[in-house]
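Entry for magnesium ion complex. Fields follow.
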Amino acid sequence: MRITRVVSQLLHVPLSRPRASPAEAKAGRLNHIVVLLVHVHTEADLTGLGFAYALQGSGRAMLALAEDDLTPLVVGEDALDHERLAAKVYWRLQTIGRRGLVQQAYSAIDLALWDLKGKAAGLPLYKLLGGARESAPVYGSDTAWLWMSPQEILDASRPYLDQGMMGIKVKVGADPEADAERLTQLREALGDDVWLGVDANERYDYGTALAMGHFFEDEIGADWFEEPITCEDVEGHARLASKLEIAIAGGEMLFGLDEFRSYLERDALAVVQPDVTRLGGLTGWLKVAALTEAHHRPLSPHLLPEVGVHLACGLPNVANVEYMPWLYPLFTNPPKIEQGRLVPPPGPGLGLELDTDAAAKYRVAFSP
Ligand SMILES: [Mg+2]
């Protein structure tokens, strides 16, 4: 199934609920998501849809990489050869980026190759991956930003909880005392049965993380403690994991299989959260999944429920999906919540239909 052309577009999609406060936005934290959208066309008349994202920056470099460096490497190749193409890209572009932007931009193409594989087979991706289940547990992740008060968090989360989602994840890390206060209020309002994750986005130092970890497990009964400290500190994560009962979650910032290996070998993560766009796409993600399974740890895909639902329904060791519907405006049929669980769209591959009007509306054009 020869690739005839790759069409890349860059979009800036506004977030339906801002993640940055007005002060943070003024300081440059974006309230839109930068999306690299690719269509991989083939001589078989099938087209694969893939995407990658960034949370900061213009995205211009990602688009340039896709158009100038990645597209020439894959046009004329067999779209089914995802391993060979991933290796080709790695070796050809190693000198400008073994990790980072090169892998991020290539993730969009790799995802499109997997979409094509499903379309060629006439199977939804989750069936191709293994068909572990027909729907997946899901938690709400866009209802509890740092700028929100407990009442705002409860109001925003109610529609999710009413639909039967397992629970919500709350951002912490600005001020430990304020974090403790809002988590106490939230747990009291939500009750003990609602799943409650806390995510520090690497903002605590080690000592604060240790103290807060004890508080989250003893006083809040939190279900996991995500990115407690900087992702560069593997040993710090290992020490926290050995001293705390609460599950340490992380992995969204890790690029490449070896970074995951260093964490897993030190028993530094209880829940592994690889991001499909930081690993060169699904091809890299699946290797992290296999490694994680060998360490008997569950996975929870970072963001992109459009992909996460296939991973959680395809593979038995993927525990749940993070519901961050940032890309939902781009599709006419994103994964739906049914009886509290996320269900993949029934079509082949990713099963996603692009809303072309929305894609046109959010498209960013750079002057040459
Ligand atoms: Mg996170």
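NOTE: The chain has a mean pLDDT of 97.
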